[in-house]
Design brief:
With 66 residues, the chain is mainly alpha-helical. Helix content is 45%, strand content 9%. The protein is built from 2 helices and 2 strands, in the order αββα. It has helices at 2-12, 47-65; strands at residues 37-39, 42-44. Strands 1-2 form a two-stranded antiparallel ribbon. A hairpin with a 2-residue loop joins strand 1 and strand 2.
């Protein structure tokens, strides 16, 4: 009987969903409800911000190698 109770408890638990951040990772603008851009595990306000973030990361990586 205790095993049945454990199974019921496991089924009641809902998985925790990751929450969408409220601000752009690059420029820190507020992300609007309909207009946001998700790429490479990050939320950005536009494609331009994402491209700037990629360029900045590449420059930082190149600088670290040198």
């Amino acid at each position: 009987m205790p095993e049945e109770a454990k199974k019921q408890d496991e089924t009641k638990k809902a998985p925790e969903a990751a929450e969408k951040p409220t601000n752009c990772m690059k420029c820190n603008k507020r992300l609007k409800r309909k207009a946001w851009y998700y790429k490479n595990n990050g939320y950005y306000c536009s494609k331009g911000c994402w491209q700037q973030a990629v360029k900045a990361a590449a420059a930082k990586k190149k600088e670290a190698k040198a």
